[in-house]
Amino acid sequence: MKAYIHATGNISAQKTFGHPPLLQVLVEQSGNRMRCTEPDYSAFIDVKMIRRMSRIIKMGVAAAMECLQEAGVKNPDAIVTGTAYGCLEDTGIFLKKMVQQNEEMLTPTAFIQSTHNTIGGQIALLLQCHRYNNTFVHRGFSFESALLDAMMLLEEGNVNNVLAGSVDEITDISHAILSRFGLYKNGNVSNNSLYNDISGGSIAGEGAAFFLLTRDPSKNDYAVIDGLHTFYKPANIIEVSGQILSFLENISCKIDEIDLIIIGKSGDEAGDAIYTQIGQSVFANIPAIPYKNLCGEYPTSNGFALWLAAGIIKSGNIPSTLNTAITKKIKRVLIYNHYQNIHHSLLLLSAC
Q1: Sequence-ordered list of residues with C-beta below 8 angstroms from that of 117, at least 6 positions apart, any chain
Q2: Angle 118-127/55-71 helices, nearest 10 degrees?
Q3: Quick one: which of 170, 182, 161 has its CA closest to 207?
Q4: Rounded to whole angstroms, how far apart are CA atoms 104 and 113?
Q5: Tens of pLDDT along 198-236?
Q6: Could you give the CA distance from residue 261 to residue 276 in angstroms, rounded to a whole number?
Q7: Residue 230 and residue 141 in contact, taking contact as beta carbons nearer than 8 Å
Q8: CA–CA–CA angle 192, 198, 203 (5° rounding)
Q9: What is the pLDDT of residues 311-350, one digit of tens each?
C-alpha cells in the first residue's frame, strides 16, 4: 500500500507557506509556546469570510488551498483530516459565554464552529466538494489515522487522489490547562536551544499541513510513502525496537537502506531518552535530525515531519540550517515519533 505525495501546503511556526526554499532561515521564538507564522489569507479566502473564521479554520483552509493550487487540482476525490484538539478557540468562546450568560441566549456560531470536523467541512464547502469527507480525532494518532484512511482509499482504486492533512492549534486557555500537567517547560525557552535545556516538558506547538496523495506516480511528485505503522503504549525499549524492525521487515526495507531518520525529539528528558536508546541500537550509524524545535510539540506534529521529509527527498539535501554535516543525496527517510510515550508512529518515504 503506497501513496505518492504530489503537492503540499504547510503553515507552521517557520516560514513554510508559499513554498519558499526549504528552511533557509529559521524562525526563533522565545517562551514555552510556538505560534504559527501566518500568511495573508486573502489570496486564498474571500475577505468577507476571513472575518467570520477562527484562526485554526483559516490556517487549515489556506494550507489545503495552497496544496491544491500547487497540484493544479480544483476538486479532490476525497478529503481526510486529522486533529486532536479541534477548534479550541471557538470552544473556549462558547464555554465562556455559557458561564457569562448563565447558559441563556447563546449564539450558535461558536458552537457550530467548535466541532472537530469544521476544517474538513469548510474546505469542502469552499470547493463545493460533495465527495468522501472524514475527520479523525485519535489523539496522538489523529494524523496517522487520516493518512492511513487516505492510503486505503487509494488502494481500493475508487479515487485517484486524496487531500489529507492535519490541523491543531494552541490557545491561551488550552496552554494554561495543559501546562498544569507538566507538558511544557517553565520559563523563557528558545526553540533554537531547546535540546540544550535538559529538563521535563517541551514547548507547545501548532500547525496545519496538507498533502495531495495520488495513486499513480508523476514526474513532479515529492516522494512516495512506502509504509505507515503505529503502536500504542510499548512496555519497554525492547518492544519499541521489535516494532521498528518488524515494520521495516514487512515493507522489505533494510536498515542500511535508510539515509536519514527524522525523530520527534521534543526536549523532554524522559521522552527523548527513548530516541537516544534507539539511536544507539536499531538506528546506530544512521544520521538523525529532530524537528520539534522547528514546530513545537503537539499531537499532530507528524504532519510537519512528513512535510519536512518530503521536501528533503525532493531537493535531495538537508537544509544547512539544520546543523548537519550530511552531504550525500537523501533518497530514503524514516520518520519515528512518539507523543508522550503513548502514541508511537513510523513513516517511511522514498524518492520516486
Answers
A1: 81, 133, 135
A2: 50
A3: 170
A4: 19
A5: 899 999 999 999 999 999 999 999 999 999 999 999 999
A6: 12
A7: yes
A8: 50
A9: 999 999 999 999 777 878 999 999 999 999 999 999 999 9
